[in-house]
Each structure stands twice: as structure tokens, then as C-alpha cells.
Amino acid sequence: MILPIVAYGDPVLRKEAKDISAEYPKLDELIKNMFETMYGASGVGLAAPQIGLPIRLFIIDATPFAEDEDLDEDEQEVLSNFKKVFINAQILEETGDEWGFSEGCLSIPDIREDVFRKDVVKIEYYDENFEKHVEEFDGLAARVIQHEYDHVEGILFTDKLSSLKKRLLKGKLSNISKGKIKTEYRMRFPEAKKAR
Fold this sequence. Notes:
The structure is a single chain. The protein has one domain: Peptide deformylase (Peptide Deformylase), CATH 3.90.45.10. It is built from 5 helices and 7 strands. The model has no long low-confidence stretch (mean pLDDT 93). The protein has a 5-stranded antiparallel beta sheet, with helices on both faces. It has a two-stranded parallel sheet with strand order 1-7. It is an alpha+beta fold. The longest helix is centred in the C-terminal third of the chain and has 15 residues, at 163-177. Helix content is 29%, strand content 31%. Fe cation binds at residues 105, 147, 151.
């Protein structure tokens, strides 16, 4: 089932999400719905807060990036099979050089900006079967993880922009929170909720 994506301005996007247990109600169904929602919006990652749930769960399918001819063959290979579920994730370490990449977010449609992040991330997480992993990722895989991880920490990519950029985007962000935007996918807007 495709769920509405929560828009910028909703308080759930600013909450630090809570850990869940393997007994979380209908977890398999939730994960399936999140993948369906993400694919329906042409995304490569989706965090539970983006569908209104303040829990430490995010999903990634970075396989579309594998077709990027600017990437080296090794990175294309990694991304071609990069479909994962991250539950109760904790970033243990971010290392390497910072590099910029134009990021967007399904909760902040029509805004893309260069965000600088470290190249390598070491992360501990549970998969959909509640098996624990500690893994290291680099390049675009690391970046997508860092972006989605920020969501469960209550951080948005726009927080990482300069104060000048933030001021320039203020009007656009305000319009998004009021629902004054057209998207190809269902959204839930905070201002519309207040008006009811």
C-alpha cells in the first residue's frame, strides 16, 4: 500500500526516532509498504518519520545509481545490489574527505542542493530479520545511508546548508509546508492538518 509522504514542516520530521523491537506490530507489512511508497515516488531511500512514524527504521534501494556512467565499475557493482533495510541504526564512524553532491528529499520536493558529507560510514544496524550487522560503506552508498540516518535523528538535508542558502529557500520551504506544491506522489502537509 502506498502511504502519503510527510511534508517539510511536520513536527515528526524533527523528532529523534525511537528504537523498535522485533515484535513491532506488522513490521513486515510496514517495510513492504515503505518500499512501495518509495518506488511510487521514484526515491532511493525512505525513513519511517517520512511516513509519520518516529521509529528508527529506514530503507534504501540505490540500484538506480548503478546506471550512472560517471561512477567507476566497482561503485556501480556495489550499487547494483544495494537494497537494504536498516532498523535501530547507529553510525559508529564517519571518515574520509568531505565531498559535495546534489541531494533532494521526498519530504522536500523540488529542492536540490549540494550537501557535503564524509566519504566513508561505519554503521551498526539490524536487518528486516533482526539480524545484527556492522558494515562500512563508501561513496554514494554511504551518502544515501547518511541522508536517511539523518531522518531518524530529526535532521533534514536543508539543515546542512549555509545560512544564506537557507534564507534563499525560506519561501519555497514555507510553500511546501502549506501544501502549495504539485508532486507526482501523495503527500501529507502539516498546515493542511491544522486547518481541519
